[in-house]
Amino acid sequence: MAKFQPLQAPKGVSEYFPDRSEIFEFVRETLIGSAKGAGYQLIELPVFEDTELFKRGVGESTDVVSKEMYTFEDRGGRSITLRPEGTAGVMRSVIEHNLDRGQLPVKVWYSGAFFRAERPQAGRYRQFYQVGIEAIGLNDPEIDVEVIAVAQRAFTNLGLKNYSLEITSLGDAESRARYTKDLREFISTLNLDEETARRADINPLRLFDDKRDEIKTAMSSAPILLEYLSEESAAHFARVQELLTALGIAYTVNKRMVRGLDYYTGTAFEFVHHGLGAQSGIGGGGRYDGLMAQLGGSELSGIGFGIGVDRCVLACEAEGIALPDSSALDLFIVPISSSAKGGAVLLAERLRSAGLQVDIAYGDRSLKGGMKAADKSRARFSLVLGDDEVTSDLASLKNMKTGESRSVTISTLHDSSLAIF
Ligand code: HAM
Predict the structure, then answer these.
(1) Average pLDDT in the 142-165 region?
(2) Which of 25, 105, 119, 213 registers the highest number of CB atoms within 10 A of its CB?
(3) 129 lines ligand 1 (CB under 6 A)
(4) DSSP label at 7?
(5) Rg (CA), the chain
(6) Cβ(185)–Cβ(168) below 8 Å
(7) DSSP calls for 117-144
């Protein structure tokens, strides 16, 4: 028979398989736990949307929309895009299902895969994972601080230490109108190629994002948005800082922060990890006060964040964070005779029905091989089943941490049997 070549995953995707999938799950669940702990509710959305949503929502001047989208025509001739981020889809859904007509703010969380056709490198993937939250319908600095605090608590709960928070304000429409006038004037003095000039024309702020050295140098003397804030925007930003300080959340103001998506207004923030090299942004977000209206909804404001699960996994690994024991099994059963194999399945199923996490050493293993598997499983207890045990209904239950063993009756073994030591 012809030998088939093994296949590989497409370039640049992140995937998690045992044992590393455990830390991925720990990170994702910890991030979600922080969102739930502040009253955010699940919103589960499609991974593909009409291309128009991202063009209008995220902005055509952004790298994400102009260079990085996975866009294709479906069988009905519609232009479809794999979601590069979560906020636009949440807004589409909130508008479509009238959630904004109910109690405000609408507070939702989401978790899943996102897609950007970037040049893959450590911490930058073409399919990656985010946990995000959005709080829609409130323009108070208190909700800005809540959103930042949810991210901060998530990182604290992961055990991360080597990171910092940067914040800025992109101002309201009035601040930005005054600012962009001056910025456009400044940009008109630069000698830009056609494509760059076109991007700058759609959104002049995008030039701060440009990776080329000559543009970086030119933009270092450009006017700065933070110095153009209206009285109202400045007061909002001052209140955010006051509350962060009151909560003991350390931050620095980064006057030159530019978020990669066009919808941002007002408060914007990024969490940067110092052990990750170039792809150091572990999470970021901000306000997007015009987005709902731009997508055909009401004039409601909103704020949220997206945290990169993949980068948090790398950050946990860089900081040597140990997984909590809770992910381990309760019991690992080691059958060492053929009659014991059936008994092991019956016992495992009975205990699983009672809510315990139980696994079995499958295959015909020796006692030594079976105990090695028990060790690897990180189960709290192990139980060896041989012909003698099956006949006598007595087996020895071993506490894998202390090494201590106790005799137990197999047919009556239950949850509290494991609490005997
Ligand atoms: P973002 O800054 O584009 O914001 O992405 C959020 C986080 O996703 C980043 O900080 C990073 O950790 C992770 N991330 C982004 N791209 C990649 C990639 N190619 N590979 C691995 N990780 C990546 C947003 O997506 C906004 N929707 C966040 C938001 C929500 N703003 C308001 N609400």
Answers:
(1) 98
(2) 105
(3) no
(4) P
(5) 27
(6) no
(7) -PPPBTTB-SEEEEEEEEEES---HHHH
**Tokens (6 digits) for 156:** 């604290």
pTM value is 0.94
The answer, yes or no, to whether any atom of ligand 1 lies below 6 A from the CB of 265, is no
CA distance 402 to 400: 6
User: Which of 53, 130, 163 best tests ligand 1's pocket when mutated (most atoms within 8 Å of CB)?
Assistant: 130
Ligand 1 pocket, 110 CB below 6 A?
no
How, if at all, do strands 302-308 and 281-287 pair? Answer: antiparallel
Token output for 86: 């979560």
pLDDT tens digits, 61-90:
889 999 999 999 999 999 999 999 999 999
Domain ranges of the chain: 21-172+230-318, 331-419
Q: Which CATH number fits domain 331-419: 3.40.50.410, 3.40.50.150, 3.40.630.30, 3.40.50.800?
A: 3.40.50.800
What tens digit of pLDDT does each residue of 113-127 get?
999 999 999 999 999
How much of the chain is helix, strand and coil, in % rounded to 5?
40, 20, 35
Across 244-254, average pLDDT: 98
Yes or no: say if 83 and 48 are a contact pair by the CB < 8 Å rule: yes
Question: What's the CATH code, domain 21-172+230-318?
Answer: 3.30.930.10
